[in-house]
Amino acid sequence: MLIDITHPLIPGESAVWPNDTPLTREVIMDVAKGDVITLSTLRSTTHLGTHADGPNHYGQGACGVGEMPLDHYIGPCRVIRVNAAPHSRVAIDMLGDTPIDVPRILLDTGTFTTIEHFNEAFAALDPDLIDFLADQGVRTIGLDSPSVDILDSKDLPTHARCLARDVAIIEALRLQDVPPGLYELMAQPLKLMGVDGSPVRAVLRTTDQSPT
To answer: Which of 89, 83, 165, 163 is nearest to 132 (CA)?
Structure first.
């Protein structure tokens, strides 16, 4: 079974990070108006909805999202639900006794469930959590929030630890209805060479080890 964990994108309705570029669509040609085809132009932030960060988003001289190895975004993952307060950071002890047994971890903080409006009080991740996960072989961290750092963070310490430990970032996943457990993740970014981010169509495939 496939589970879509991507937020729908609707021009004029999908919220983005404060002061970032919202999604707009210009219809150049339209079959409803007698044209042979419908043709559109889209304009938006590259960090639109459910998206992958390119390391050059937070690291000078780092690669873009299009250069990232695909195995960051495809393969076994574990969904973990944590009890996070608004505007807090998820710490190591909040994982409890959940095993870290796959290289991709997706965290549902419960603080960012829709992009119809932008909840600025979302929970983010503690920098020490990245080191803890990386030490156990985690190469990709995903979460429901739109950033691994809180909204008003200036030095972006969690982004810095992801860069230092070569941990890929997927943000704004729609996880609230997904039972915690093991799945297969498919969340490839577009091959945008040198670009700082890309929307993804993130999907979980259930396996024999997935919750029933």
So the answer is: 165
Stated pTM of the model: 0.97
Walk me through the domains of the chain, giving residue ranges and CATH numbers: 2-13+46-205 (3.50.30.50)
Using the CB atoms, write b or e for 162-187: b if 16+ within 10 Å.
bbeeebbbbbbbbbeebebbbbbbbb
**Strands in the chain per DSSP E:** 2-4, 24-29, 39-43, 51-53, 74-81, 89-90, 104-108, 124-125, 140-143, 168-171, 181-186, 197-199, 203-205
Phi, psi of 181 (to 5 degrees): 150, -165
The rounded distance, in Å, linking the Cα atoms of 71 and 26 is: 34
Written as tens digits, the pLDDT of the chain (212 aa) is 999 999 999 999 999 999 999 999 999 999 999 999 999 999 999 999 999 999 999 999 999 999 999 999 999 999 999 999 999 999 999 999 999 999 999 999 999 999 999 999 999 999 999 999 999 999 999 999 999 999 999 999 999 999 999 999 999 999 999 999 999 999 999 999 999 999 999 999 999 999 97
- CA–CA gap between residue 192 and residue 169 (Å, rounded): 16
CB 90 within 8 A of CB 107: yes
For the chain, give the number of residues: 212
Per 3-state DSSP, what percentage of the chain is helix, strand, and coil (rounded to 5)?
A: 15, 25, 60
Known catalytic residues are 57
